[in-house]
Known about the structure:
Blueprint: H1 3-7, H2 10-20, E1 26-30, H3 37-48, E2 51-54, H4 55-63, H5 67-91, E3 96-99, H6 108-117, E4 119-124, H7 127-134, H8 141-144, H9 149-167, E5 170-173, H10 179-189
Parallel strand pairs: 1-3, 1-4, 2-3, 4-5
Helix pairs in contact: 3-10, 4-5, 5-6, 7-9
Amino acid sequence: xxxxxxxxxxxxxxxFVLTMQSKLNNIVLVGPMGSGKxxxxxxxxxxxxxxxxxxxxxxxxKTGVSVDHIFDVEGENGFRVRExxxxxxxxxxxxxxxxxxxxxxLLSENRDLIKKAGLVVYLLSSVDQILRRTSxxxxxxxxxxxxxxRKTISDIVMARDPLYKEVASLVIDTNGKKLNExxxxxxxxx
Length: 190
């Protein structure tokens, strides 16, 4: 390793690599609800000096109402249409870390958009970890109507795991890891 590289931090090397590889101008985070996409995305974008957007937050900002409200009024299909519109805009923005909604991979056109947007990182999480992270949440429509959260999460993970893997450039197991460990692992992989 050249002397210059030894004096640079991992973050500085990652920024240099991202700058030099125009294909990797975006990092898209996918995974089930509660896998840490928003938390990891915010920290990763800060570490790399990139913009950050959460697709669910952008839907709320655009509509002025909560995701739960959209699900109640328009149903899941109506929400998915809005999600596709936002993803289309976000995936075209340069130098951005994007935290997608857990169900964004359900539509094939979204999967195509995500794959073309840049490096796709699947944050793999166990059902137990997701249960812990979402236990107090009141803003997850698919869980709020559930009488058995464990079964609902298990069903979601089982159905969507192949779709996350289909779009992923990189799979990061989040189980038992602290935020800084995840950020370092992602940066070292890119």
